[in-house]
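Structure request: PCI domain-containing protein, Juglans regia.
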Amino acid sequence: MDPKLTEVSQFFERFKAAFVRQDFDTCSRLLSQLKVLLTQFRSLPPLFEGTPNAIHELSLARDIYEQAVILSVKIEDQDAFERDFFQLKPYYTDVGNVLPPSPQEYPILGLNLLRLLVQNRIAEFHTELELLSSTALENPCIKHAVELEQSFMEGAYNRVLSARQKVPHETYVYFMDLLAKTVRDEIAGCSEKAYDYLSINDARQMLLFSSDRELLEYINEDHPEWEMKNSSVFFQKAKESAPCKEIPSLQLINQTLSYARELERIV
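Returned structure:
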Protein backbone atom coordinates (compact mmCIF):
# COMPACT_ATOMS: atom_id res chain seq x y z
CA MET A 1 0.00 0.00 0.00
CA ASP A 2 1.09 3.58 -0.68
CA PRO A 3 2.91 4.98 2.42
CA LYS A 4 0.74 8.15 2.34
CA LEU A 5 -2.41 6.04 2.25
CA THR A 6 -1.12 3.92 5.13
CA GLU A 7 -0.40 7.04 7.20
CA VAL A 8 -3.89 8.49 6.63
CA SER A 9 -5.50 5.11 7.43
CA GLN A 10 -3.56 4.87 10.70
CA PHE A 11 -4.54 8.40 11.73
CA PHE A 12 -8.17 7.64 10.89
CA GLU A 13 -8.11 4.50 13.06
CA ARG A 14 -6.83 6.64 15.96
CA PHE A 15 -9.63 9.14 15.25
CA LYS A 16 -12.29 6.40 15.37
CA ALA A 17 -10.87 5.00 18.61
CA ALA A 18 -10.99 8.47 20.21
CA PHE A 19 -14.56 8.91 18.91
CA VAL A 20 -15.67 5.67 20.57
CA ARG A 21 -14.12 6.92 23.83
CA GLN A 22 -15.99 10.22 23.29
CA ASP A 23 -12.66 12.04 23.50
CA PHE A 24 -13.82 14.77 21.14
CA ASP A 25 -10.86 17.09 21.78
CA THR A 26 -8.51 14.41 20.47
CA CYS A 27 -10.91 13.80 17.57
CA SER A 28 -10.83 17.47 16.59
CA ARG A 29 -7.03 17.54 16.73
CA LEU A 30 -6.68 14.36 14.66
CA LEU A 31 -9.28 15.60 12.17
CA SER A 32 -7.24 18.74 11.49
CA GLN A 33 -4.19 16.57 10.79
CA LEU A 34 -6.21 14.23 8.58
CA LYS A 35 -7.50 17.11 6.45
CA VAL A 36 -3.93 18.29 5.88
CA LEU A 37 -2.81 14.77 4.93
CA LEU A 38 -5.69 14.43 2.46
CA THR A 39 -4.32 17.35 0.43
CA GLN A 40 -1.55 15.00 -0.75
CA PHE A 41 -4.03 12.94 -2.78
CA ARG A 42 -4.55 14.33 -6.29
CA SER A 43 -7.48 11.97 -6.87
CA LEU A 44 -9.68 14.01 -4.49
CA PRO A 45 -11.82 17.04 -5.36
CA PRO A 46 -11.34 19.36 -7.15
CA LEU A 47 -8.64 17.60 -9.24
CA PHE A 48 -10.15 14.10 -9.53
CA GLU A 49 -6.98 12.73 -11.16
CA GLY A 50 -7.06 9.04 -12.09
CA THR A 51 -4.25 7.87 -9.81
CA PRO A 52 -3.58 4.13 -9.21
CA ASN A 53 -5.15 4.28 -5.72
CA ALA A 54 -7.93 6.73 -6.65
CA ILE A 55 -10.85 4.53 -5.54
CA HIS A 56 -9.25 3.72 -2.18
CA GLU A 57 -8.30 7.38 -1.59
CA LEU A 58 -11.76 8.68 -2.50
CA SER A 59 -13.46 6.10 -0.28
CA LEU A 60 -11.19 6.88 2.67
CA ALA A 61 -11.64 10.64 2.27
CA ARG A 62 -15.42 10.23 2.12
CA ASP A 63 -15.38 8.19 5.34
CA ILE A 64 -13.26 10.86 7.04
CA TYR A 65 -15.54 13.74 6.04
CA GLU A 66 -18.62 11.76 7.08
CA GLN A 67 -17.10 11.27 10.52
CA ALA A 68 -16.21 14.97 10.58
CA VAL A 69 -19.87 15.89 10.03
CA ILE A 70 -21.00 13.54 12.81
CA LEU A 71 -18.30 14.93 15.12
CA SER A 72 -19.55 18.48 14.52
CA VAL A 73 -23.00 17.37 15.72
CA LYS A 74 -21.53 15.73 18.81
CA ILE A 75 -19.65 18.91 19.76
CA GLU A 76 -22.67 21.05 18.74
CA ASP A 77 -20.74 23.19 16.26
CA GLN A 78 -23.04 24.28 13.43
CA ASP A 79 -20.32 26.23 11.59
CA ALA A 80 -18.08 23.15 11.52
CA PHE A 81 -21.05 21.10 10.30
CA GLU A 82 -21.57 23.43 7.35
CA ARG A 83 -17.87 23.45 6.42
CA ASP A 84 -17.51 19.68 6.66
CA PHE A 85 -20.77 19.00 4.83
CA PHE A 86 -19.69 21.09 1.84
CA GLN A 87 -16.33 19.31 1.79
CA LEU A 88 -18.20 15.98 1.82
CA LYS A 89 -20.88 16.83 -0.73
CA PRO A 90 -18.75 16.28 -3.89
CA TYR A 91 -18.21 12.68 -2.81
CA TYR A 92 -21.98 12.17 -3.12
CA THR A 93 -22.62 14.27 -6.23
CA ASP A 94 -19.46 13.97 -8.36
CA VAL A 95 -18.08 10.48 -7.65
CA GLY A 96 -21.29 8.68 -6.74
CA ASN A 97 -20.95 6.55 -9.88
CA VAL A 98 -17.37 5.56 -8.96
CA LEU A 99 -17.75 4.66 -5.28
CA PRO A 100 -20.22 2.19 -3.76
CA PRO A 101 -23.11 3.88 -1.90
CA SER A 102 -22.36 5.00 1.64
CA PRO A 103 -24.79 3.95 4.41
CA GLN A 104 -24.22 7.38 5.97
CA GLU A 105 -25.27 9.36 2.89
CA TYR A 106 -29.01 9.73 3.50
CA PRO A 107 -28.73 10.30 7.29
CA ILE A 108 -26.20 13.10 6.62
CA LEU A 109 -28.26 14.64 3.81
CA GLY A 110 -31.27 14.57 6.13
CA LEU A 111 -29.18 16.17 8.89
CA ASN A 112 -28.24 19.01 6.56
CA LEU A 113 -31.91 19.61 5.69
CA LEU A 114 -32.71 19.67 9.39
CA ARG A 115 -29.92 22.20 10.01
CA LEU A 116 -31.29 24.50 7.31
CA LEU A 117 -34.74 24.22 8.86
CA VAL A 118 -33.40 25.06 12.34
CA GLN A 119 -31.59 28.09 10.91
CA ASN A 120 -34.79 29.16 9.09
CA ARG A 121 -33.02 28.99 5.71
CA ILE A 122 -36.14 27.73 3.95
CA ALA A 123 -35.11 28.75 0.42
CA GLU A 124 -31.85 26.78 0.74
CA PHE A 125 -33.82 23.88 2.25
CA HIS A 126 -35.94 23.65 -0.90
CA THR A 127 -32.91 24.12 -3.17
CA GLU A 128 -31.18 21.13 -1.54
CA LEU A 129 -34.42 19.16 -1.78
CA GLU A 130 -34.65 19.81 -5.54
CA LEU A 131 -31.19 18.29 -6.01
CA LEU A 132 -32.17 14.95 -4.46
CA SER A 133 -33.22 11.93 -6.49
CA SER A 134 -36.65 10.32 -6.21
CA THR A 135 -34.98 7.41 -4.40
CA ALA A 136 -33.49 9.78 -1.82
CA LEU A 137 -36.86 11.47 -1.26
CA GLU A 138 -38.32 8.11 -0.25
CA ASN A 139 -35.65 7.52 2.40
CA PRO A 140 -36.96 7.86 6.00
CA CYS A 141 -34.21 10.34 6.94
CA ILE A 142 -35.16 12.70 4.09
CA LYS A 143 -38.91 12.21 4.60
CA HIS A 144 -38.49 13.08 8.29
CA ALA A 145 -37.01 16.49 7.40
CA VAL A 146 -39.64 17.15 4.71
CA GLU A 147 -42.52 16.33 7.06
CA LEU A 148 -41.02 18.57 9.73
CA GLU A 149 -40.81 21.47 7.30
CA GLN A 150 -44.45 20.96 6.27
CA SER A 151 -45.57 20.88 9.92
CA PHE A 152 -43.50 23.97 10.70
CA MET A 153 -44.98 25.93 7.77
CA GLU A 154 -48.53 24.84 8.72
CA GLY A 155 -48.00 25.95 12.32
CA ALA A 156 -48.57 22.39 13.56
CA TYR A 157 -46.00 22.87 16.30
CA ASN A 158 -47.20 19.92 18.37
CA ARG A 159 -46.27 17.63 15.46
CA VAL A 160 -42.83 19.24 15.27
CA LEU A 161 -42.14 18.65 18.97
CA SER A 162 -43.54 15.12 19.02
CA ALA A 163 -41.28 14.21 16.05
CA ARG A 164 -38.31 14.27 18.44
CA GLN A 165 -39.51 10.98 19.92
CA LYS A 166 -39.22 9.19 16.55
CA VAL A 167 -36.04 10.50 14.97
CA PRO A 168 -34.65 8.20 12.23
CA HIS A 169 -31.07 8.55 13.49
CA GLU A 170 -29.52 9.31 16.88
CA THR A 171 -27.56 12.30 15.52
CA TYR A 172 -30.85 14.09 14.78
CA VAL A 173 -31.59 14.74 18.46
CA TYR A 174 -29.28 17.81 18.67
CA PHE A 175 -31.02 19.63 15.80
CA MET A 176 -34.45 18.50 17.00
CA ASP A 177 -33.78 20.14 20.37
CA LEU A 178 -32.76 23.36 18.58
CA LEU A 179 -35.90 23.17 16.45
CA ALA A 180 -38.05 22.73 19.57
CA LYS A 181 -36.54 25.94 20.98
CA THR A 182 -37.19 27.75 17.69
CA VAL A 183 -40.83 26.62 17.82
CA ARG A 184 -41.28 27.72 21.43
CA ASP A 185 -39.69 31.10 20.71
CA GLU A 186 -42.12 31.56 17.83
CA ILE A 187 -45.11 30.69 20.06
CA ALA A 188 -43.77 32.92 22.85
CA GLY A 189 -43.41 35.90 20.50
CA CYS A 190 -47.00 35.51 19.27
CA SER A 191 -48.35 34.97 22.80
CA GLU A 192 -46.88 38.14 24.27
CA LYS A 193 -48.36 40.17 21.40
CA ALA A 194 -51.79 38.52 21.56
CA TYR A 195 -52.30 38.45 25.36
CA ASP A 196 -51.65 40.67 28.35
CA TYR A 197 -51.34 37.57 30.53
CA LEU A 198 -52.01 33.85 30.62
CA SER A 199 -52.58 31.45 33.46
CA ILE A 200 -49.60 29.21 34.14
CA ASN A 201 -51.64 26.21 33.02
CA ASP A 202 -52.56 27.90 29.71
CA ALA A 203 -49.00 29.11 29.15
CA ARG A 204 -47.64 25.62 29.80
CA GLN A 205 -50.07 24.06 27.32
CA MET A 206 -49.49 26.77 24.71
CA LEU A 207 -45.71 26.43 24.92
CA LEU A 208 -46.06 22.64 24.84
CA PHE A 209 -44.28 21.90 28.13
CA SER A 210 -45.12 18.83 30.18
CA SER A 211 -44.60 20.45 33.60
CA ASP A 212 -44.69 23.82 35.36
CA ARG A 213 -41.01 23.40 36.25
CA GLU A 214 -40.03 23.23 32.55
CA LEU A 215 -42.10 26.37 31.89
CA LEU A 216 -40.43 28.21 34.78
CA GLU A 217 -36.94 27.24 33.56
CA TYR A 218 -37.78 28.45 30.05
CA ILE A 219 -39.06 31.80 31.35
CA ASN A 220 -36.03 32.34 33.60
CA GLU A 221 -33.56 31.53 30.81
CA ASP A 222 -35.23 33.05 27.75
CA HIS A 223 -37.86 35.54 28.93
CA PRO A 224 -36.81 37.15 32.23
CA GLU A 225 -38.97 40.16 31.26
CA TRP A 226 -42.13 38.10 31.81
CA GLU A 227 -43.66 38.37 35.29
CA MET A 228 -44.95 35.40 37.27
CA LYS A 229 -47.57 36.31 39.89
CA ASN A 230 -50.97 35.10 41.08
CA SER A 231 -50.54 31.81 39.17
CA SER A 232 -50.29 33.74 35.88
CA VAL A 233 -47.65 34.89 33.41
CA PHE A 234 -47.80 38.61 32.58
CA PHE A 235 -46.39 39.95 29.32
CA GLN A 236 -46.86 43.67 29.95
CA LYS A 237 -43.17 44.39 30.59
CA ALA A 238 -42.21 42.71 27.34
CA LYS A 239 -44.71 44.90 25.47
CA GLU A 240 -43.45 48.06 27.18
CA SER A 241 -39.81 47.23 26.39
CA ALA A 242 -40.53 46.44 22.73
CA PRO A 243 -39.44 49.35 20.50
CA CYS A 244 -42.29 51.22 18.84
CA LYS A 245 -41.58 52.15 15.23
CA GLU A 246 -43.07 55.35 13.89
CA ILE A 247 -44.61 55.26 10.43
CA PRO A 248 -43.34 58.23 8.37
CA SER A 249 -46.84 59.04 7.09
CA LEU A 250 -45.99 62.46 5.60
CA GLN A 251 -43.04 61.05 3.69
CA LEU A 252 -45.16 58.17 2.36
CA ILE A 253 -47.90 60.58 1.20
CA ASN A 254 -45.37 62.76 -0.62
CA GLN A 255 -43.83 59.71 -2.32
CA THR A 256 -47.25 58.42 -3.41
CA LEU A 257 -48.21 61.83 -4.87
CA SER A 258 -44.84 62.00 -6.66
CA TYR A 259 -45.43 58.55 -8.20
CA ALA A 260 -48.93 59.63 -9.28
CA ARG A 261 -47.54 62.74 -11.04
CA GLU A 262 -44.88 60.66 -12.82
CA LEU A 263 -47.55 58.22 -13.99
CA GLU A 264 -49.65 61.11 -15.39
CA ARG A 265 -46.64 62.33 -17.39
CA ILE A 266 -46.03 58.86 -18.81
CA VAL A 267 -49.68 58.41 -19.80
